[in-house]
Design goal:
globular; 11 strands; alpha+beta; binds (3R)-3-hydroxy-3-methyl-5-(phosphonooxy)pentanoic acid; about 325 residues; eight-stranded mixed β-sheet
Length: about 325
């Protein structure tokens, strides 16, 4: 018996960082998926082959999962399996992964891998796929590994679509967003979420009132979108993105490259543009009318970015009949 599951990546539309501090955010899933193949094995151990993470073969007894040095690339899968394997402590699992997107993009491949590992193990143990349990367990995994984080990547990978989200899944509601008008720009720089979150946390210790005010303002932008989604013009949605970028600049999580891409997109006719995710690298988003799309894409590229072809708001974690990577 073997199981193949897949889960999408994500992009934060509004409210990153503030979501770690109790505010709502908007997130959407990205068409590129992480695939995971799991087979039960007789020895009580975890075996992982993840060539795109530069892990040819990784092995660890189930009883030792989470203990000792855990390589960064393996941490999410190892902790996810640790959280579920107690149900069948004598059955090991051999996992292989295949990613349609580079871990560089910041689409959240580690979170997608954690979601897939939990979803696959659930089914290997004979249980139906239970999205709420997948979310809870995979969110616990993020907390095990990072000690911080809102779980927004986990929510997008699990439920898919576009969501209003609050940390820990306190709020998880589908919402419409003009996804067809979004353009994604990759900065070419890999960002390390935990390092940036720690830097911001350090600044928050020195300027607690300032940072909590910035988070509150970010939350207001998200609430404004959620309350008025049906009536906001696309230009107003762009304006909310620009305001959000200004607040992210105030947190000092943009970068010369990201800010250049954002300003180039606006100058080329985008209604709005902002970085997406933790910042310093990874991706930015621009919102543009169809007639400006080509100009905005060119401006982002000229500013040093790359425009990957993506579809947004796709289905969350699902079981696959087969995948060519696993034949
Ligand atoms: O992992 P990233 O870079 O997409 O960041 C996710 C959004 C943050 O709000 C910065 C972190 C979090 O856990 O919510």
């Amino acid at each position: 018996m073997s199981i193949i599951v897949s889960a999408p990546g994500k992009l934060v539309l509004l409210g990153e960082h503030a979501v770690v501090h109790g505010q709502p955010c908007l997130v959407t899933s990205v068409s590129q998926r992480l695939y995971l193949h799991a087979v039960p094995i007789e020895s009580p151990e975890l075996i992982v082959e993840a060539p795109q993470l530069h892990v040819s073969v990784y092995r660890k007894p189930l009883a030792e999962l989470g203990e000792g040095a855990v390589p960064k690339a393996m941490a999410f899968i190892e902790h996810a399996v640790r959280r579920v394997c107690f149900e069948r402590p004598h059955i090991g699992v051999h996992i292989r992964t295949h990613s349609e997107f580079s871990a560089q993009y910041g689409f959240g491949s580690s979170s997608a891998a954690a979601v897939c590992a939990v979803a696959a193990m659930q089914q290997l143990y004979g249980n139906p796929l239970d999205l709420n349990r997948v979310f809870e367990t995979a969110y616990g995994t993020v907390r095990d590994v990072q000690k911080t984080g809102s779980g927004v990547d986990i929510a997008a990978a699990t439920y898919g679509g576009t969501l209003v989200y609050e940390a820990g899944g306190r709020r998880l509601e589908p919402i419409a967003f003009p996804l067809a008008e979004l353009i994604v720009g990759y900065s070419g720089v890999k960002a390390d979420t935990v390092t940036i979150l720690n830097e911001v946390a350090d600044r928050a210790r020195r300027y607690p009132d300032v940072l909590s005010s910035i988070y509150a303002l970010m939350g207001q932008l998200v609430r404004r979108y959620v309350d008025d989604a049906a009536t906001l013009s696309i230009a107003e949605v762009g304006e909310l993105m620009n305001l959000n970028q200004g607040l992210l600049e105030a947190l000092d999580v943009s970068s010369t490259r990201l800010s250049a891409m954002v300003h180039a997109a606006r100058a080329a006719g985008a209604y709005g543009a902002k970085l997406s995710g933790a910042g310093r690298g990874d991706c930015m988003l621009a919102l543009a009318a169809n007639r400006s799309r080509a100009d905005v894409e060119e401006a982002i590229t000229t500013a040093g970015g790359e425009v990957p072809a993506v579809r947004l708001g796709v289905e969350g974690v699902r079981t696959e009949a087969s995948h060519p990577a696993f034949v």
